Every structure is written in C-alpha cells, then in structure tokens.
Amino acid sequence: MEAGAAVMIQGIDAEMAVIGCMVIDPDLRPKIIDKLAPEMFEHPKLHKIFETATDLYWSSQQITYTALADKLPSYREDLIKMSQRVETLSACDQYIQIVIDRWRIRTMKNALKNILAQADFKTADESVELMRTLVGKQDEIAKMDSDASASFAEAAQKFTDWLKSNDAQNTIKTGFRSMDSAMGGFLRQSVTALCARSGHGKTDFALNLALRMAKNGFKVQYFTMEMTTNQLMQRIAAQMAHIDGNLIRDKKLSAGEISDVDMVLKAFESAGKINFVDDAKISTKVIRRYIELFRPDAIFVDHIGIMERPNVKDQYHALGMVSNELKQIAKENNIAIVELVQMNRQIEGRKDKTPNLGDIRESGDIEQDADYVMFVQPEDITDRQLTGEAWADAMIYLLKNRHGRPGTFQFHWQPQYHTFIEIENNYQGE
Predict the structure, then answer these.
(1) Coil/strand/helix, residue 346
(2) Exposed / middle / buried, residue 26 (Cβ in 10 Å: 0-12, 13-18, 19+)
(3) Residue 251, exposed/middle/buried by CB under 10 A (0-12, 13-18, 19+)?
(4) Which tens digit of pLDDT belongs to each residue from 289-348?
(5) Where are the domains of the chain?
(6) Is residue 264 within 8 Å of 248, Cβ to Cβ?
(7) Would you state the CATH architecture of domain 5-141?
(8) Cα 84 from chain centroid?
(9) 3-state DSSP call for residue 10?
(10) For residues 420 and 207, is the Cβ–Cβ distance under 8 A?
C-alpha cells in the first residue's frame, strides 16, 4: 500500500491494515490492543483473526501470519493473501480510527433499529433512554480511543502538553479568592458535597457560587427540588439588588426598588449563563437529559437527599447508587457537580459543634465519591433578626480536598440579602 493511501481506505481494508500493522511492528501492538476489541471488527473472519492475535499477544507468543495460520488452519488462504499486503505503518492511527468509527456507526444503526421496532410500545422518554443504553454498550466493549487507557509514555506526553498549555477552562473559578486558591477552582469531572444543617445557608451559598460561575462566563444548570424557581429568584434579586429578601417575598417594594430589581436582573441576564430546573422529582436520568440539552460547565443539585432513588430495599445503598452515578455523569460530561447534602443531627448533641465527615446524612458513599467535601457552619442567630448591614460569621470547612489541602474559610453571611461575603487572606490550609 502506498504512503498516504490510508486516508482513502474504508471498512474491511482498514480492519486488515490494522492486523497487518500488528504482525509487522511489535511496537504498535500495545496501542492497537488498548484501543480495539474483536467485537469492533465487522468481517467475521477478521474478528476471529484479531481475537487470535490478541490471545497470542497476552500469552507472550510471536504474532506472525504463520502463527495465526497454525491457530486458524481454515483461514490459511485468507492469511496468505493478507501477508502479501504491505501496510503503511505510519498510518496505523488512521486505520484504528476508521475501525472505531465504523463500529460506532453500526452500533448506532442497530440501536435505532431496536428503538423503531419497539416504538409503538414505549414513550418518548423510554425510547431516549433505550437509545442511551444501547449506544452506551460501546464503552462496555472497548477501551476506546479516549483517555481511559494509556501507556506511561502516552500519559507522560499528555501531562507535559497539559503543563505547557494555558487551559483556564479546566477549572471553574468562583471569584472567592481563598477558595479558588485552595481548590484551583472547581475542577471539571469533580463532585463537591456542600453540606449544612437545614436553614444554615446551604442554598444561599450554593446560589452565590452558581451566580459567580455564570458571571465568569460558565454555563450553569441549577436543579431545585425543595424550592420553586420563583423562590430562588427572590433570593437572587435580594442579593443582586441588595434589598431585604423578606420585603421581596412579601412584595413590599417601592416603585424605585422594583425598577432596581428589574435593572440588575436584566443586566445579569445579558452576562450570565444559568438555567433552572424546578421539579419535585429529579433523577439522574433527568439530569442526563438536561445536560444533553443545555451542555453546562457545572450543575448544582439541591439537594441529593430528595432525588429519586433506585427501587431497592436498602435506601442507604440506593442513595449511594445515586452518588456513584453523579460521579460518573461528572466524568462522562467533563463538568463540575455541586451536590447539596443535609447534615445529620449528631452535631446537635456534641459540645464541639465543629463538623466532621461523619456528619454527612444517610450514605457514606457521598463522602467517598466526592472530590471536595465542604461544610457551611454559621454562628447561631436564632435569637436575633439580622437587618440592615448586620451579618453573622460563617465558617466554610473544606474537610476533604482530593486535589490539595483541606482548610477553612471565613465569611460574613447576610441572610437578609442571601449573600456570603468573603473575608480576605483567610485560607488556613492544614
């Protein structure tokens, strides 16, 4: 085969070329076996030949046409014809990609056939989920052409390329300097568990984070199950217009204040990118669907404890399954997920009110799956009503930081404005 001809070959020719590269160059074998599986080969004979070549490789035997013929005597003539081809080894990556692409197309065609065959018996949502399941089987078969598998040399090259790049989009900055410094921003493919007792500022802090991300140009999806979109907008309006949230809730605003609210919201609308999903029943399936529609950089789940769970007897295990899937969603879609979590009541009976990882309610999988675990802990304000510019001190405890040091951050919380104000230069890394 002449140099450059690989770009024109398709189908079976590419499958034969891949096998030819395996036979001719031992150095190419690890890459080929990493990226391809026998099931990806369309021609039954080539499927079997590749499977046999793979078996020879893993048993540390020589891969030659003669060795393959000894294992597959009925394929001897086919192998003789293949041995007479001279492959362009430099085009091996192209051969591999053609095999992968054609296999994916076949998989999707088969999925569509199955869906069409069952269309009269399923809802639209069920059909979408069936499509996702059938196409998703690709990942079960192959190690694929992704970053899932890499030799040390490949991993080292990608790492040095990353070091040299100026990829600011890998992290989602909030503008809270101490947190961004400690965490590097919210990393894509990460999950953050944001924990607090009920009424202790968890949603306020989450909205502050979400709005800051959106203001910085990132697309944010906010899923709310306890509050309506209108209730969230009341908090956002209070924060942006710096107007007491109780006055907004009770609609006791002057004409000038209403004008101020309208102005700041419209100004943010042109700069921010945030979408709200208000539904009492939100599942991981629903989250996946909205991610496909909106393509966010980050999502917020408020809160994980009331998400729909798999129908299993052990609800502790069911919540763990939800937590596990959210982690997979973050990785698959290259997004950051912030999941709000209720704390259990154990802290109320302790003399020391400083939170610990054992205070996470219901499932240990939440802590295990999370890259970051944060606790919002404001001072007790039950005996006073904050008005004007008054604030409550609030500590944010970063008790788990998979990518750096844990530490604490000090804020002022103004619940009347639903606002958290960072105190500068306060990161105390452990």
Answers:
(1) helix
(2) exposed
(3) exposed
(4) 888 888 899 999 988 888 888 776 766 777 888 888 889 899 888 999 999 988 777 766
(5) 5-141, 168-422
(6) no
(7) Orthogonal Bundle (1.10)
(8) 47
(9) coil
(10) no
Peptide bond into 403 cis (omega under 30): no
CA atoms within 13 A on the CB side of 31: 18
Q: Indicate the DSSP class of residue 33.
A: H
Query: What is the distance between the alpha carbons of residues 14 and 94, in angstroms, rounded to a whole number?
Result: 8
Q: State the Rg of the chain over Cα.
A: 28
Backbone angles phi, psi at 41, to 5 degrees: -90, 125
Q: Quick one: CA dihedral 115, 121, 125, 129, positive or negative?
A: negative
Cα dist from 343 to 24, 194, 282, 359, 360, whole Å:
61, 10, 20, 5, 5
- Beta-carbon contacts of 244 under 8 Å, excluding residues fewer than 6 positions away, are 238, 387, 416, 417
Strands across the sheet with 220-224, in order? 274-278, 220-224, 298-302, 336-342, 191-196, 372-378, 392-401, 407-414, 419-422
The 10 Å Cβ neighbour count of residue 179 is 23
Task: Please say whether the beta carbons of 18 and 92 come within 8 A.
Answer: yes
Beta strand extents in 166-287 (DSSP E only): 171-172, 186-187, 191-196, 220-224, 274-278
CATH code of 168-422, in short, is: 3.40.50.300
Residues counted in the chain: 430
| Two domains, one topology: 5-141 and 168-422 | no
Q: Catalogue the E-assigned strands of 205-273.
A: 220-224
- Residue in the structure block whose two tokens are 């009341």: 234
Q: What is the spatial distance between Cα 324 and Cα 181, in angstroms, rounded to a whole number?
A: 27
Cβ count near 47 (within 10 Å): 16
Q: How far apart are CA 84 and CA 362, in angstroms?
A: 65
Q: Of 278, 292, 273, nearest to 219 (Cα)?
A: 273
pLDDT digits (tens, 9 = 90+) for 358-406: 777 666 678 788 889 898 888 776 666 777 677 788 888 888 888 878 8
Taking the CA atoms of residue 128, residue 133, residue 139 and residue 140 in that order, the dihedral angle to the nearest 10 degrees is 180
Contact 390, 368 (CB under 8 A): no
Q: Which two structure tokens, joined as six digits, stand for 375?
A: 């606790």
pTM above 0.70, yes or no: no
